[in-house]
Amino acid sequence: PLKDGDSGITAPFLYDIAGKKVVIASIFHGKQGQHPMVAGLDMSVESMQEMAEKWKPFGPESRLSVVSYDGTVVARAGDPDKRGQPVESVDSAWAQEARQALDSKEASVTWQEDSLNIWTPIRLGSSGNCWFISLYIPRDVAFAGVYALTKGMLLAGVVATVLALLAVALLANLITSPIRRTANVIEGIAG
Fold it and tell me: Are 177 and 95 contacting, i.e. CB atoms less than 8 angstroms apart?
């Protein structure tokens, strides 16, 4: 940070505070110029786990995770023991997605057979490093609106088809009714 004048946040690390393992990250800011210096602050990121556990925008099945730029799990809903561990400790498919997101440093959406994962970068400072938020959403939950719309469209299609058939039957009756009456009259005359 001092050489480049960068600011940012370090990868998290486990630190023993009063016998309790706490996940810590350091915020830093470097300043170049006449009086170069680096200032830093260590902070607990334990509150991120609480946030991950509480924030369920797509219902109880959705899961929020936070990953640092070096692939360390900062928070993971439903899996607090993974904090401070590498992404590979979670799940191989998820770890691969995490590594791809970290390498690209861009937002992405990944699809699995039964779910989708939204990866959003968090750019912190000028260091070029970014952390990621991952939001796991089960496919059924993510597409509930689409499924409901599809069912509604199918129902509307069936109703429209039945109405069209009734209209055609009524129109056919209107067209053929005079012909039938004429045929009955001719049949009555022929006798």
Answer: no
Residue 58, token pair as written in the block: 């797509």
Q: What does the mean pLDDT of the chain come to?
A: 81
pTM: 0.65
Whole-number CA gyration radius for the chain: 32
| pLDDT confidence tier of residue 32, bands split at 50, 70 and 90 | low
d(CA 106, CA 187): 83
Query: Would you say 62 and 135 are in contact if contact means Cβ atoms under 8 Å apart?
Result: yes
Tokens 């067209």, residue located: 175
The phi, psi pair for 98, rounded to 5°, reads: -60, -45
* Identity of residue 35: H
d(CA 86, CA 123): 20
CA–CA gap between residue 145 and residue 158 (Å, rounded): 20
**What is the Cα–Cα distance from 189 to 78, expressed in whole angstroms?**
89
Which pLDDT belongs to residue 34? 55
